[in-house]
Every structure is written in structure tokens, then in C-alpha cells.
Amino acid sequence: AAENDDAEGLLAEVGLDPRAWHHKIGTYSKGMAQRAAMAFALAGNPSWLILDEPMSGLDAVGRKRMLEVLRKRHASGCGILMCSHIVPDLVRICDRILILAQGRVVSDISVEEHTMEQAERIEAMLGEDSHA
User: Average pLDDT for residues 109-127, to the nearest whole number?
Assistant: First the structure.
């Protein structure tokens, strides 16, 4: 379970100023809005998170913080289903990676057993954007 599920605690957890809860989201940068969205998703300590490109718009510091938040939540029993094209992030967070093409699973890789060859294959399937 999260240490602190109140609004200020969740904002602090994702790296936002805890006093910023009253600011209009439209004034936030893409990265700040992404962090605020994650804080909102974490409210209520969900048993599952379903995330679409959660690292989008984040700088290196923001990505590191988000990875820490997701690892912590996963370690506390929260399931995470995440869509991303950033292979290094997937390897750091996920137990399994499914590659979809035209709505079908074309590769199912256990991260624990993944090899450099598989990582290269994933990156080739995803294209140039898969590099961090």
C-alpha cells in the first residue's frame, strides 16, 4: 500500500510540488501534466494500473521518478498493464513484454529470461523510437 494517498502526498510521490494541487492543469507542461495524471491514477491505491505511454513528455529525471513510483507500486502488489515503445523502461518495470502488430501478439517475452538478441528484436520491431 502507498505510504500517503492524500492529494498532497500523491503529488509529492510523483515529483510535483504538493502545494500545487489547486493549480489549473492547463498551466502545466506536458511532463507536469503527465505526473499529475499519474498522481490521479494512484488515488485510492488501485490494485491495477492501466497506463498508455506513462513516460511521454517526461525528462530524464521525471522518467526516473516515474519508474521508481511504478516499481514501488508493483512491489506492493499493484498490477501494471502498460503500453510503451521505450524498451529500456519496459525491461525495468515489466515481468513480460508482449509485442502487438495489427492487433495480434507477435512476440511474448519473459523479461527475466530476455536476452540482448531479444531486446534487439524488440527494438527492430518497434523502430527507431524504441531507444531511450
Answer: 71
